[in-house]
Amino acid sequence: MVGKVYGIGVGPGDPKLLTVRAAEVIGSLDILFYPSFGKINMALNIAKPYLNNRTKKIEMKVPLSPPKDKFKAYYEYSGKIMSYLNEDKDVGVLCEGDPLFFGSFINIWHNIRDEFKVEIIPGISSVMSAFSQIDEYMAIGDDSVSIITANVINKVIKEKINSSNTTIIIKIGNKFQKINKLIATMGLSDHSIFLSNIYSERQFISKLSKIKNNPTDYFSIIIIKNNNVH
């Protein structure tokens, strides 16, 4: 017998936004892996109300860059997960937001899905939850939407903004100045909203044009509404 692995989306930040299925599984696991980026253990903090004391918790320390170090870390953690599965242990892997929407779990999933049974438990992504916090809609009717990361080159970002009614740039991190400057040159700063740590105690929301400092939080997004697109 072998165990089963669960990719668990824990949502944007509020433990109350987990699905019933996610809460059930978190409370029943033998082993729980959770990602950490520096000193941030967001996924584990969200899941804490549902944890079982007997569950063994294992931190996944994953560097954000360079890519080769990141993928090496995920490969090594995948091996550890498979070892537990071969011992007939049920293993959960937490992921902020949704596991398959720019989720860190995708890197684990690619390594184990051909050999072991995997259940994906969807979660509410920061993108989907952000609009409820700014009293705005993402799209209606035939509107077009683009979702990209801040690592994309400026030319592509500009093309997406110019062709989309709504553009969401995620994983801002240390790319804030680059993105802020680009949006300003397009005259859209007053039509853009910056959000970080949505639905958590550290939540911050501001019109982009009013931000004077240089926020570098990894869990940040910028929403641009371009009313010139028809």
TrEMBL record:
Pathway in which the depicted protein is active: Cofactor biosynthesis; adenosylcobalamin biosynthesis
One GO biological process term: cobalamin biosynthetic process
GO MF annotation: an example: precorrin-2 C20-methyltransferase activity
Domain Tetrapyrrole methylase: 4-186
Broad EC category: transferase
Entry EC no(s): 2.1.1.130
CDD domains per record: Precorrin_2_C20_MT
Matches recorded under InterPro entries: 4pyrrol_Mease (IPR000878), 4pyrrol_Methylase_sf (IPR035996), 4pyrrole_Mease_sub1 (IPR014777), 4pyrrole_Mease_sub2 (IPR014776), CobI/CbiL (IPR012382), CobI/CbiL/CobIJ_dom (IPR006364), Uropor_MeTrfase_CS (IPR003043)
Keyword Repeat annotated: no
Keywords in alphabetical order: Cobalamin biosynthesis, Methyltransferase, S-adenosyl-L-methionine, Transferase
Gene3D superfamilies tied to this protein: Cobalt-precorrin-4 Transmethylase, Domain 1, Methyltransferase, Cobalt-precorrin-4 Transmethylase, Domain 2
Family note: Belongs to the precorrin methyltransferase family.
PANTHER family listed in its UniProt record: COBALT-PRECORRIN-2 C(20)-METHYLTRANSFERASE
NCBIfam families in the record: cobI_cbiL
Record protein name field: Precorrin-2 C(20)-methyltransferase
Organism: PS1 clade bacterium
